[in-house]
Amino acid sequence: MTMTTMPTTTTDAAAAEAAAADRLRRRYARRYVARRIGVYVAAAAAAFVCAAPFLWSMITAFKQNRDLYNPANSPFLFNRPATSDHVTYLFDRTAFVTFAWNTLWVGTLVVAITLLLGLPAAYALARLERPWAGWFGVAIFLVYLVPPTLLFLSMSRVVVELGLQDSTWSLVVVYPTITIPVSVWLLIGFLKTVPRDIEEQAMVDGYSRLSAFWRAVVPLAFPGVVAVVVFAFTLTASEYIYALSFVSPTNEKVISTGVPTELIRGDVFFWQSLQAATFLVAVPIAFVFNLFLDRFIAGFTQGAVKG
Question: Which of 151, 192, 217, 297 has the highest local Cβ count within 10 Å?
Answer without folding.
Answer: 217
